[in-house]
UniProtKB/TrEMBL annotation:
Keyword annotations: Ribonucleoprotein, Ribosomal protein
UniProt key word Ribosomal protein: yes
Originating species: Rhynchosporium agropyri
Protein name in the entry: Large ribosomal subunit protein bL34m
Ranges of compositional bias, category Polar residues: 33-53
Length: 134
């Protein structure tokens, strides 16, 4: 019978090479599992290594040479491969004007709801404007 109280008995009971192999297998299996969001890709431009082409260098590093004003700005504004937007801070095509949205934000009823809106309506009434709001 083995004595598990001393270190020699414990070392004899557990074979470390087998333990290392099983741990490395489980780590490899966990890293090979991919979720749906990782398969789908980022929805916004990111600075992570996964969004870079395979042959390029990483954008962010902690060296003082890349933290200069030209280093970080040139990396952020550089065009990226395999991207829908050419620049990281590029404007997106999310503006979709609508008559209902304009009425909801700047209409007469929205002006009545707030104190500043009511004050604006009073000023326009005092000037005898034909249209008080949208």
């Amino acid at each position: 019978m083995l004595c598990l109280g001393c270190s020699r008995g414990l070392a004899a009971a557990i074979n470390y090479s087998t333990l290392r192999q099983s741990v490395s297998k489980t780590i490899a299996q966990q890293s090979s599992k991919r979720t749906f969001t990782s398969l789908r890709g980022p929805s916004r431009p990111t600075l992570f290594q996964s969004s870079l082409p395979p042959g390029s260098a990483p954008i962010l590093s902690t060296s003082p040479t890349t933290l200069t004003s030209s280093g970080i700005l040139s990396n952020l504004c550089a065009p990226r491969a395999f991207s829908t937007t050419s620049v990281l801070g590029a404007p997106r095509d999310t503006f979709d004007p609508s008559h209902f949205v304009r009425k909801r934000r700047h209409g007469f009823l929205s002006r009545l709801k707030t104190r500043k809106g009511r004050a604006m309506l009073k000023r326009r009434l005092a000037k005898r404007r034909s249209t008080l709001s949208h």
